[in-house]
Amino acid sequence: MEISKRFQLHFLEIGSDNDHVHFLIQSVPMMLPTKIVRVVKSITAQEIFGRIPGVKKQLCGGEFWSDGYFMSTVGKNGTETAIQQYVKNSRYSTRVQTDT
Known about the structure:
Layout (H helix, E strand, L loop, with lengths): L1 H6 L1 E8 L4 E7 L5 H19 L2 H5 L20 H10 L3 E4 L5
Antiparallel strand pairs: 1-2, 1-3
């Protein structure tokens, strides 16, 4: 929720599988996709390490996220619904509730 407020990013769906996570994020048009990835990765890692300090010791090199990622942009003309269904059908999926 703090990421959403601070950076105008809206998490529409979150899903995960054994070793990766899927986010469907809506953002303002001016924000670069690479900045979205950096923001999400850095803030979520800081939050996890702050809440569960022992996690960092269990990770290879102490890094929570790998360097790689896949990102695709979608629009309202059909592709957003397809991506939302894909994320929703991940093994562990959460519909994100926001106040906005």
